[in-house]
Design goal:
Elements: H1 4-13, H2 23-35, H3 39-51, H4 58-68, H5 75-84, H6 94-106, H7 110-122, H8 129-141, H9 145-157, H10 164-176, H11 180-192, H12 199-211, H13 215-228, H14 234-247
Helix pairs in contact: 1-2, 2-3, 2-4, 4-5, 4-6, 5-6, 6-7, 6-8, 8-9, 8-10, 9-10, 10-11, 10-12, 11-12, 12-13, 12-14, 13-14
């Protein structure tokens, strides 16, 4: 766990030992402040960096963009920094694009995210598994499930292995689209590729199966959860019980 105020104290003490902080040291402290959600302090710290003559770098601007993409009301400010980066001698990298795409998807601005994703690929800036996952999550949230399915196939064709969050996001989209059996096929694919499901994965599938009255499949998933060492909570059991009641069929 980072301790932002301790980090600042140590940073300021460096000068007491005739040790001038490097630009990397400044960016490290800036990143810690953002990571710990000390955003006002982070922007004040960045202002101080500029006042002492430190030029902006891709790394420092990426940290600021990450901070701005945490809130719906400040994403546009992050986009503004992104657009101004070339004028400051800083070319956006994969992390820059990924951070903005994640923020745009989080706040439902999927068309802008798609545009940035396309630009990223055209500029040979390779998307990471995190960026693909953000896009898949955003597409599913905007009911573009088929496009999300295609994106999963694209990332696999490029040798980028989906992780549990990627699979779970797409399963959630399929279940909400009334296609829990297709989500189950994805679940089996995930297992064969050595990616272990987590509580969110199971909860998503069981909820989707119960909603479509696929109760037997939901019960089988509960058993698989237990075999994996994951303990279903009362809410999951309740959904299965309600599902049985809805179809008036008990084992």
């Amino acid at each position: 766990v980072h301790r932002p105020f301790d980090s600042l104290r140590v940073f300021h003490k460096m000068k007491d030992f005739d040790c001038d902080p490097s630009q990397k040291s400044y960016v490290t402290v800036l990143a810690i402040l953002v990571e710990e959600n000390q955003l006002k302090l982070a922007f004040k710290f960045y202002k101080n960096m500029r006042e002492i003559g430190l030029p902006p770098t891709v790394a420092s601007l990426n940290v600021l963009i990450k901070a701005l993409c945490r809130n719906d009301g400040t994403v546009d400010a992050g986009l503004k920094i992104f657009l101004e980066m070339p004028k400051r001698g800083c070319d956006p990298d994969s992390y820059t694009y990924g951070t903005l795409i994640s923020g745009l998807c989080r706040f439902g601005r999927i068309d802008e995210a798609k545009k940035l994703f396309k630009e990223m690929v055209e500029k040979d800036c390779a998307p990471t598994v995190v960026t693909y996952t953000s896009m898949i999550h955003g597409l599913c949230g905007s009911k573009n499930v088929e496009e999300a399915v295609r994106l999963l196939e694209e990332m696999k064709s490029k040798g980028i292995e989906p992780n549990v969050f990627t699979y779970s996001s797409l399963m959630d989209g399929l279940c909400k689209d009334g296609r829990p059996l297709q989500a189950m096929e994805l679940f089996e694919m995930m297992m064969t590729r050595g990616c272990r499901p987590n509580m969110v994965t199971y909860s998503t599938l069981i909820t989707g199966l119960c909603k479509e009255q696929k109760i037997q499949e939901a019960v089988e998933l509960l058993d698989r959860m237990n075999l994996q060492g994951l303990k279903p909570d009362a809410g999951l059991y309740g959904k299965v019980i309600n599902g049985f009641c809805a179809i008036s069929k008990f084992p």
